[in-house]
Known about the structure:
Layout: H1 2-26, H2 32-45, H3 50-86, H4 88-91, H5 95-116, H6 127-132, H7 137-162, H8 166-194
Helix pairs in contact: 1-2, 1-3, 2-3, 2-7, 2-8, 3-7, 5-7
Amino acid sequence: MTDWVQQLIADGGYLGLFLLMFGETIFPPIPSEVIMSMAGLQAAKGSMLLPVAIAAGSAGAMLGNIAWYLAARRLGLDRLRPLVERHGRWLTMDWAEVDRGERWFMRHGYLFVCLGRMLPTARSLISVPAGLMRMRFVPFVLWSSVGTFGWSTMLAVGGWILGTRFAAMEAWLGIASTLLLVVLAAFYLWRVLTWKPSR
């Protein structure tokens, strides 16, 4: 995967980086860890300016975040309810849990959106509850931008610092992302097997 990411960044420059990060947000299995670290590596080689690369990557990711938010907001809780009532076991939730989640989100939503942008793999999905709960658009964009910029900066600076040792960094991040996916899959399976509707 590294080769075609590197090639697209080399050929497309900042626009290629923007499109890669947009695609990563829409389709989470594309790893931002590789994309932004590779951008940092290119900056270390002198083919990119690090601040501009960070800005381009963050902008692409934010466009994807907004797309997820608007899609979830259009769905809304009213349209979600029949899905929850019909497929509660596979969604591992019932409507009482949605109500509790909504109350929690009203109190802690901004922090959830900001810090959630720094979670590998899961970071792309943070926009969905924000849209469903109809978080105000401007705070959503503001706090998402803070988290997204922080994540992009951390990865790009890491790639820039490591330089030629990028392969070692990619391997470590790949292992971390895979472990997180395994944990999330195991947690979902446990939820399905033990799920019972609230009384």
